[in-house]
Amino acid sequence: MKTALIILAAGKGTRMNSDLPKVLHPIAGEAMLVHAMASGAPLTPERTIVVAGHGVDQVRAAALEHDPETIVVEQTEQLGTAHAVAQAAPALAGFDGMAVVLYGDTPFIQAETLNRMAEALTDNDVVVLGFEAADPARYGRLILQGASLERIVEYKDASEAERAITLCNSGVVAARADLLFDLISDVGNDNASSEYYLTDIIGIARDRGLSATAVTCAEEETMGVNSRADLAQADAAFQARARATLMEDGVTLTAPETVFLCRDTVIGRDTLVEPNVVFGPGVTVESGATIRAFSHLEGCHVSRGGIVGPYARLRPGAELAEDVRIGNFVEVKNAQIAEGAKVNHLSYIGDAHIGARSNIGAGTITCNYDGVMKHHTHIGERVFIGSNTMLVAPVSVGDGAMTGSGSVITSDVEPDALALARAPQVEKPGMARKLFEMLKAKKARAQRGS
Ligand code: UD1
Ligand code: CA
User: Fold this and answer.
1) Do both 61 and 198 map to the same domain?
2) Are residues 256 and 196 in the same domain?
3) 162-200: string of b/e by CB count within 10 Å (b at 16+)?
4) Which pLDDT tens digit goes with each residue over 264-299?
5) Is the CB–ligand 1 distance for residue 78 below 6 Å?
6) Over the stretch 422-437, which tens digit does the pLDDT of each residue have?
7) Of 187, 207, 222, the domain-final residue
8) Can you give the pTM of this predicted structure?
9) Mutate to test the pocket of ligand 1, among 7, 79, 81 (most ligand atoms within 8 A of CB)
10) How far is the C-alpha of 440 from the C-alpha of 450, rounded, in Å?
């Protein structure tokens, strides 16, 4: 069936104690809203509607950045979850498919769970996702009669007997879009919170003789984020799952609990990741690479056989071809490093191309920024850049060329040439000994005087 996602994200998130809208706080480097949007992606939705309120402009920007087709609607006053869903009605006028309601602060609903809900909808008018809560606390309670879901009662409105129920409402609901909005139009706000509860649609549907049921999932999937402590817990849960998946996929993590991943991190089989490595967004590492300890990677690509680190930093646009070696205290940004090239020690390579099998000596810097603009450095194949070379961009070094250690290279170097750009060495025989004697005498005089 055609599917639309309605993602509720208008709430303030008071307990985050933040200027940033709650749903934009990151889990594994990406806004929790993006995780929520991605959690619904396996249903291949035709439309995704995000209902925003607090921080609507920021929320809109984040939603559109992740998926430019997203429809963001504004809920100016937060009058309850039913009222929030109703804001999506105009965007779904005439849509004859299933609508699935997700929360922007509940980022981990699994594809398999949503598929089970879609399947249950073939025999039911409304399907709710429930879970057995270890501590049911203030969740809404699901009132079942056999397999039939009769109604949902909010904690505040529940009797003692109802509060004893441990099967709770996750908030995820699926129904045909037209029916969903029709049911919502009957929801009132005569309850303990004076809010329009989405949960009331179950009782309304049953009163109309329609059918409702609950599909259940593990509690960790329905984990919501309300505070910074929840955020940290959600991140930890995400990391634990992502590490386990990588290891199942044939990646060695020497100390998995010290490796931090993003939702989109891709690492190939038989790659080794040593302890204390951080993967930011947009990293792909091919098979058989080694990422050594204490490295930080984002927006980069490491090809087969590459060795990175220890203590390396790969920034956005770092493109490493096969068998490239990036060593300790090397930073690479927006640069292509061709096959077999080596940048082993203490270097900055930014806005550059380094040709195949070139060797970049320790302490080399591409001086890419003149204070106003960025400039490109091109280094050919089989080049040997001497230690502590400053490459003042824009500049290029031809194939097979060499630069002398300590050179400041400001103009292009021809292929096969040796470029030396440093002060010639001056030597004064015996001068060091004289200088030492002079200094020692001066020190002795000063000590006598005091
Ligand atoms: C809701 C459910 C409850 C369920 C719980 C699960 C209702 C009435 N109750 O309660 O049964 O156990 O979630 O976490 O649905 N939102 C809006 N606009 C609004 C109100 C809420 O966008 O006017 C958004 C919030 O930003 C949040 C989500 O909807 O993402 C849930 O709202 P929240 O107020 O947290 O609902 P709960 O009281 O937790
Ligand atoms: Ca909540």
Assistant:
1) yes
2) no
3) beebebbbbbbbbbbbbbbbbbbeebeeebeeebbbbbb
4) 999 999 999 999 999 999 999 999 999 999 999 999
5) yes
6) 999 999 999 999 999 9
7) 222
8) 0.89
9) 81
10) 16
